[in-house]
Amino acid sequence: MLKRSFFQRINAQLVAGVSFLLLSFSVQSADYVAIQGNTFFSVLSGSELKDSAKVSDFYMRSTPVTNAEFLAFVQKNPKWQRDKIPTIFAESSYLQAWANAEDIGAGLQKERAVTNVSWFAAQAFCASEHARLPSWYEWELVAAADEHRADARSDPQWRARILSWYSAPSDATSNQINSVPNYYGVAHMHGVIWEWVSDFNALLLSADSRNQGDPDKLKFCGAGAISLQNKENYAILMRVALLSSLTGASTTANLGFRCARDVNTEMQIQKNKSKK
């Protein structure tokens, strides 16, 4: 069951804290594409939604946030640099692949998706774009699409294709931003990184997520506090398992994010741009 949590309240507060700026500041960011809302069957069950999830229209970043974009963010917001961020907001592995707090380094490509980022830092970045992290249901809706269909989950070939990445060693996978967008115009929902969602800590697979092991190695356990549907869609269930093992300060390897916007926020941003 998805429920309102401490992290969701912080999520709302961060977005609300910058919303008043929309009237006077334009936003320069990655492309956000319109996602038509829908009611669909989620892999999650046992909720008050009776196995169906209803998602309203929203906007989503077409690609995950890159190293270059996150570097620009921490340069403008030094409190989120790795040598300044409080330990309550990020583990010691926060941005550990970077050369230092303000330099990605020559060996790390700027246009690769940023990883080793905590939930708190990801949400702060999204708030700087007048956005937020997507909810699980929003992410799941978009992730169900292939290049031509809004919902390809019943296709065994599609499931096998996305599962092939999850079964590959993490050091053999590039997180370079370069693939074909899906039906919605959103790229890299699979095959590049794991992604934060706003309500990650509501996706409980056990009574105590601290018992689920090392999320870097995805050593999670057993049957869960919630039941799961479409168990043949194993790749998506692996994401649920990973997210349920995290805390807001987790900075797992291959864990990055993308942002989403409510329709009203996007309309206000576009209105401001048209005045220039």
Characterization of the model:
The chain is α+β, with helices and mostly antiparallel strands and 276 residues long. 28% of the residues lie in helices and 8% in strands. It is built from seven helices and seven strands, in the order αββββααααβαββα. The chain has helices at 6-19, 67-76, 119-128, 136-143, 156-166, 234-244, 263-274; strands at residues 32-35, 38-41, 52-55, 58-61, 194-195, 255-256, 260-262. It has a three-stranded antiparallel β-sheet. A two-stranded antiparallel sheet has the order 2-3. Helix 1 runs parallel beside helix 3 (119-128). The model is unreliable at 14-27 and 206-227 (pLDDT under 50).
Which features characterize this protein?
276 residues, globular, 8% strand, three-stranded antiparallel beta sheet, alpha+beta, two-stranded antiparallel ribbon, 28% helix, 7 strands, paralog of FGE (formylglycine-generating enzyme)
Main beta sheet: strand number and arrangement? Answer: 3 strands, antiparallel
At the first level of CATH, the class is Alpha Beta
The total number of structural domains is 1
The helix count comes to 7
Q: Write the CATH fold name.
A: paralog of FGE (formylglycine-generating enzyme)
Separation of termini?
45 Å
Pairing-aware structural class of the strands and helices? alpha+beta
Sheet with the most strands: spatial strand order: 1-4-7
Find the count of extended strands (DSSP E, 2+ residues): 7
Topology as a string of helices (H) and strands (E): HEEEEHHHHEHEEH
Overall mean confidence score, pLDDT: 79
